[in-house]
Amino acid sequence: MATVRDILSRKGTEVVSVPPTATVLEAARRMNERGIGGVAVLADGVLAGIFTERDVLRRVVVPGRPPGGTTVAEVMTTPVTTCTSSTRIEECAELMTNRRIRHLPVVDDGVVGGMVTIGDLLAFQVRDQQATIQYMNNLVYDVR
Q: Is 3 helix (H, G, I), strand (E, B) or coil?
């Protein structure tokens, strides 16, 4: 069974984060610079929340809050749905689908050790399916 650990071994374990005291504008700039849709919010190394594009739209833009004067702590999503590195890929996909989330921090023993996205899961599953198809083709066509 494939696990989150398998995804992290391919994509890496870097976690882009901001402190809760960062402004929405600072967090949005960091997300834009990195080409990502969400950041972990870490307070003294502990996961305090997650801040995503959805939070910007729903909790900042629509209510008319000033991005430069609003802290991430005021508008981040909390509590955060997480997984561990040993969580099965299928379980993550189900969790993300059911909760309608696109970012899932990986937390082992209280330490954030990565972030998986719905895109990571789909890419992994596609690669896995392609490998299975290739194996089956080899099995069928290489038997003489």
A: strand
